[in-house]
Amino acid sequence: MSVDPYTPFNDTLDEIINETPERAAAVAKMLAEVDEERRAYRMNLATIRKAAELTQADIAARLGTTQSAVSRAEQRGDMLYSTLLAYLRAAGAQDAALTVTVGGRRVEVLLSDAAQAA
Amino acid sequence: MRLGHTGWVDVYASRQLQIRVADLRQRAKAGDAHAETTLRLVGLEIAILRRLDAEPDEETPDLKTVRRSGKYVVWRVSHPHLEGYAVRTIVWFTPQGQAVLACYATDKAQMGNLFYQTVGERADQVIDEWLRDRPEGLS
Q: Could you give the number of structural domains in chain B?
């Protein structure tokens, strides 16, 4: 069997994926899932960072950590208030607060206060 | 039918990856369901690369740098959660131009910790071979 690693793989990829309609449909469905995961991933700390026009490496430098650590933090579902606050401050965010409506009232808690109380 | 848009990055597949894909294709045709699923996942991961315009400047759930990279910094492409499968395609973006080499694909679920221990060395070997035999002018 001869293979050519120096010809772009695009056409071969299409041939493989489209070999059966089931395979093509499965890959298309998974690509849509990838897009959805990326959208969910981005609607978090990364949104704030990008609004500040900073890269993960910028945040890492300000926090004295690695870009990989920042990436992991941006994906994490849970984190300490203090970690969240450090990240937000590194992104230049000010007056970071948690705002909820409870009992019909809007209540705001500064994250710095929440971090101290925790 | 071309799935999704095509970016500016040329995607190349190493000799090793092409052999693996050919093997998966053959086994899938023979009715091997596991090979069929693995082939779909590898196809997906290469299709993800094809949509890129350049080496990513940030990580996403499906594209992350490999911390235990060797001489060459490589990325790993992954797929949405699928019970029993953790197929990863290891890729390297050439510094000179708009190209990415898909080095190899493996199922982390089968390899366990060995995946992380060997990825740097294994990728380096594939990349070195690809660069050594690369025709002149290919970026």
A: 1
For A82-89, what is the mean pLDDT? 88
Query: Which tens digit of pLDDT belongs to each residue from B92-123?
Result: 999 875 789 999 998 887 777 778 788 999 99
> Given this model, what pLDDT does residue B1 score?
42
Q: Which of A16, A26, A34 sits opposite B21 (nearest CB)?
A: A16
Q: Which residues contact B77 (CB under 8 A, 6 or more apart)?
A: B45, B46, B48, B49, B62, B63, B88, B89, B90, B91
Inside any domain, residue B139: no
Q: Which domain holds residue B70?
A: 2-133
A75 touches chain B (CB under 8 A): yes
Given a cut of 90, whether residue A111 has pLDDT beyond it is no
Chosen for mutation from B16, B25, B42, B62 (greatest number of chain A CBs closer than 10 Å) is: B62
Name chain B contacts of A17, Cβ cutoff 8 Å: 3, 43, 47
